[in-house]
Specification:
Largest sheet: 9 strands, mixed
Structural class: mainly beta
Distance between the termini: 73 Å
Number of strands: 36
Oligomer: single chain
Radius of gyration: 31 Å
Helix content: under 10%
Strand content: 35-45%
Number of helices: 7
Shape: globular
Length: about 650
């Protein structure tokens, strides 16, 4: 019987069924929250069994159910629902299960994917689906299933993690002098990459499995290990451009401008001298080169290598590769997973060559190159344009010609000046209107918490955002919060480059949603324009003093941001012990303002336009000297971008 059918009419089986409703029946429930509780719900109605079906493709689970249960996935779900809709009197029985072969080394749908900020994550993967594990015989509630089960087949990180922890413990027992970094590198560089995505067909990638599924038959015999110091980890927090050089058993370049390198140091932990070849593999259109490609390491000694990634003509996007290490004259093989996102950094190149097709000797094309500094720092930029053998220069403007195929120039470019938000008394679209008047329900929020919402596009300080983070301490973060550093009970003096940045603060102080209504979020319209409205109804921390205030943000157009307060119930001064900031700052945290004291009226935030960064521009003309496709490559180097930024144009010579 379908649970979605009357009189139960609850496809997800979330409510307890009336006694006798499902007497002796097998009930089909749709998967959703609390898989086990569904069986408990239909058992209250006398159900003899349950079919739990996935409405969308997902993993099937083997839970500790309250009654005999079969879990099915698409397309079996479609077959079942179609059959039941045309055969309402269907009867069914469960038969004894039979042994079957299951395909392993497939990522689950619920496994977290990378990257992790600037780092390639996960590090490794391990068995985490259908794992026989201990089960508490005394569960706390019906959510955990019936009492008395000592074992259960379980799925999740709580199953995969012990596999890795146990593997690490075995490696420490085998190599007690290894550091945690060496153990991690041994597990990651010897893992198997013969892993599929959840469809059990498509090859998985490093953002699915990191180095791969751990393989203890190889990890304990790793001939090369890597390690990194806590000091270098800490220093990388203030040096994002050079995090790629941390000595990790993986490489991730979140910005790969065309050419980039990563440094690694391998240590030989064995008692024998080992020789390795190092070869990189990646997608067509890119190359991964290891220098030196052949090296010998004595016992206990180290070898430094440079991993060079080049992709001058690759379209923007995410790509993967691998560094393969193979012992010469031995059986050891290891690898480092590589990920890179092809895109230009803070000083991009704009190069155009027109026309793109010219007649040999008689035709001419003009190439224009523009390089702009979009970073906040002044920086030196060196630009170099080169032509291949099919092309020759015929003239250069704004740069220096070197021979018949090279153009070069160097210039210091001023940093970008971002928009500056300014707060001043000003009226909003409607003043303060309690969102409860529109039937808007509050969203609960506790102490030192944030809620992130995906919203229609809005403009603030020269940028467009589609996410917003609502913080319990009386402010929002344009673009959403990202970690605990964006949640601060002690208000900053704006601007402040420390997190949080992109702050819109109608009443930033130490507030607590515990025991208070919470925050209200809604979209309002007057029939022409729309606004995102956020209302806080929270207590001053440690008190019952309710603070009420709003933020209005115009959607889909020019910047339109106001703070509104109930004139009959102003939030007042929380006192020096709490501190208070009412103001705004840009996303960089470099510009902004705030009022003095507590709010006494409504306020409007407007942003003064900044200034773009400096630009380097030049042009040159060229001709074709032989038929075929010629290449114009411009490369730039600057301290503000790791690696070399590359832009390529093709010229057809006829």
């Amino acid at each position: 019987m379908l649970a979605s059918a009357p009189p139960y009419s609850d496809a997800l089986c979330l409510s307890p069924a009336p006694p006798g409703l499902f007497a002796g029946k097998i009930v089909a429930c749709q998967r959703g929250p609390n898989r086990v509780l569904k069986g408990f719900s239909v058992k209250q109605g006398g159900a003899a069994g349950m079919i739990l079906y996935n409405a969308t493709p997902q993993d099937v689970m083997t839970d500790n159910h309250w009654l005999p249960t079969v879990h099915i996935d698409k397309p079996e779900t479609d077959v079942l629902l179609s059959w039941l809709s045309s055969h309402p009197g269907t009867t069914a029985t469960f038969t004894q299960g039979t042994k079957a072969t299951w395909q392993g080394d497939a990522m689950t749908s619920f496994s977290s994917r990378g990257p992790g900020g600037d780092f390639l994550k996960p590090d490794v993967t391990a068995p985490g689906l259908h794992i026989l594990a201990g089960m508490t015989p005394t569960p706390d509630s019906p959510l955990e299933g019936p009492a008395g089960n000592l074992y259960q087949v379980i799925a999740g990180t709580s199953m995969s993690s012990p596999h890795v922890a146990g593997a690490g413990a075995l490696l420490f027992a085998l190599h007690p002098d290894w550091t945690p970094g060496q153990v991690k590198s041994a597990l990651e560089t010897t893992a198997t990459t013969k892993v599929t995505k959840e469809d059990r067909t498509t090859q998985a990638d490093p953002f699915d499995y990191g180095g791969g599924r751990i393989d203890l038959t190889k990890a304990g015999d790793a001939g090369l290990t890597l390690d990194e110091t806590a000091v270098n980890y800490a220093a990388s927090a203030a040096d994002p451009l050079n995090r790629i050089d941390l000595n990790l058993p993986s490489v991730n370049a979140p910005i790969m401008p065309g050419v980039i390198s990563a440094k690694r140091t391998f240590v030989n932990p064995t008692t024998k001298t080992l020789t390795y070849t190092a070869l990189g593999t990646t997608v067509s259109g890119a190359n991964i080169t290891v220098l030196p490609p052949l090296f010998t390491v004595k016992p206990g000694k180290s070898q430094k290598v440079t991993i060079l990634i080049t992709a001058p003509d690759l379209p923007e996007g995410q790509y993967f590769g691998q560094v393969n290490l193979k012992q010469v004259g031995g059986g050891r093989e290891q690898h480092l997973p590589v990920a890179f996102y092809r895109r230009e950094g803070a000083v991009p190149i704009d190069q155009t060559c027109t026309p793109s097709t010219i007649a040999r000797n008689t035709g001419q094309s003009t190439c224009t190159v523009s390089v702009q500094n979009t970073s906040l720092q002044d920086t030196d930029v060196t630009a170099l344009s080169t032509l291949d053998a099919k092309l020759r220069l015929t003239g250069v403007t704004g740069a220096t010609q070197v021979g018949s195929q090279i153009v070069t120039t160097k210039k210091t470019l001023a940093g970008r000046k971002p928009d500056k938000p300014v707060i001043a008394p000003g009226s909003g679209p409607a003043g303060y209107i309690p969102l409860t008047a529109f039937g808007i329900a509050p969203t609960p929020i506790g102490d030192e918490e944030a809620l992130n919402f995906t919203v229609p596009a809005y403009t603030f300080a020269g940028r467009t955002f589609t996410r917003i983070g609502v913080v319990s301490d009386g402010y929002t973060v344009a673009g959403g919060t990202n970690g605990s550093a964006d949640i601060q009970s002690t208000p900053q003096t704006l601007p402040d480059t420390a997190q949080p940045n992109g702050v819109l603060a109608p009443y930033w102080t130490d507030l607590d949603g515990t025991g208070a209504p919470g925050v209200y979020v809604a979209t309002l319209t007057d029939g022409v324009s729309r606004w995102l409205v956020v209302e806080w109804r929270l207590n001053l921390y440690g008190t019952n003093s309710l603070k009420v205030f709003q933020q209005w943000i115009g959607l889909g157009g020019a910047e339109d941001i106001t703070y509104a307060y109930d004139p009959g119930n102003l939030p007042g001064d929380p006192g020096a012990v709490y501190g208070l900031t009412v103001g705004a700052e840009n996303i960089e945290g470099t510009a902004g303002t705030q009022i003095s004291g507590p709010p006494t009226q409504d306020y409007r935030v407007t942003s003064t336009p900044g200034a773009p960064g400096g630009t380097l521009s030049y042009s040159f003309t060229l001709k074709g000297v032989s038929a075929g496709t010629g290449t114009v490559l411009t490369a730039t180097s600057t301290p503000e971008v790791k690696g070399i930024t590359v832009e390529v144009d093709k010229i057809t010579v006829q």
